[in-house]
Amino acid sequence: MSGPVRAEGVVLRSMRFGEADRILHVYTEDRGRIGAIAKGVRRSRSRFGGRLEPFTRVKLMLHEGRSDLMTVTGADTVAPHRRLREHAASLDSAARACDAVTKLFETSDPQPPVFHLLCHELSLLDDDPAHATRSNQLAFRLKLLLAAGLAPQLAACANCGEADHLTGFSGAAGGVVCMACEGAGFPLSEEAHRFMSDALGKPLREAPSAGDRALRQAERAIGETAEHHAHVRLRSAAP
Q1: What average pLDDT does the segment 182-205 reach?
Q2: What is the pTM of this model?
């Protein structure tokens, strides 16, 4: 149905189009991921100013026509996240967070928990650059997998159900595997296993820390889960 639409969302990506326009990918609370065109936004006297920059949380007024792209007719900033743009690590973490949402949630199906998780992550990065860590990025991705219904099995072997001797991880099986089934996956240390369990169970603000080896293993587990079950390849986490 065509006509005016209101939506609150986070600008995931902005691409130049024509001489003065931009095409936006926006993740919204009520309409999932949408595409929109902002006409004339690149002109110096654009009425949108900087309100449609990536990582901005914004309330949009849109016109929905026959095209797959809506047209932005108005925008009000909810959270500009200016401070995260002042720190390279925070800016990079924000970009990786938005990229993960883009890849894992491509459709217009509304997923309010995903929207609120992304808003929380950007707010943390804006509040304090100390949150721009590899462990934070991996905790965020684990919570995205949970929201997508793809959280890895961590309590028992994903192959046979054994609860003890969980020494490996299999992306194809969807979780940890026991010593007898480890041939189907790769070795996973106890520290990496604990990091993943804690990251899923704790608030994002309290993302656990772990050593480099454990984080590399956790990242591999997350990446293989996304590849096998969502058929997407996530960008590597920043060191």
Answers
A1: 94
A2: 0.93
